[in-house]
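Hi everyone,

Forwarding the result from last night's run.
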Amino acid sequence: MLTACAPPAAAGPGPGLLALLGAWTWLGVDPADTDLAHLFLAHPPGHTEHDTAAAIEGHMLQVSAALGGLAEPQDLVPDLGGRLLIVDATTVLLRFHGTRFGTRLPVRPGWTEHVCGHGQAVVVMGLDPLPRSADLAHVDAYLDAGLTSGRLLFGLVHPT
């Protein structure tokens, strides 16, 4: 669901693009085996001839820029600052630079408690399309392939 946040400061992703994004959240671990909340974003496959793989990647890079610039898997994960507004135990709002819109995400109360307690979550963004209806097995396969091919981007966000 899309929610208006504040007036835009600069050109960012529009409400149509933000509403298209698929989002998945889970509690997992980081490479050091420390508990970490994950928020994964992906663009669904296109429906027209204009929705090429290159166009979808371009959209996701625009979203990455509006978050503050995500990093490739081999790079240091950037701190994107306060991008998560905790609405309640089951809803958070992911906010972007340059747009007055945010993406409302349904989450489990344990995910929200973890983010509030630890003060951060990692955003993982896929550059390739993935259906919003993808189940856990497909998401896991997508993430494995994305790590291998370098088609995932990462950043840390904090609650505001």
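Residues 34 and 158 are 17 Å apart (CA to CA).

Cheers,
N.
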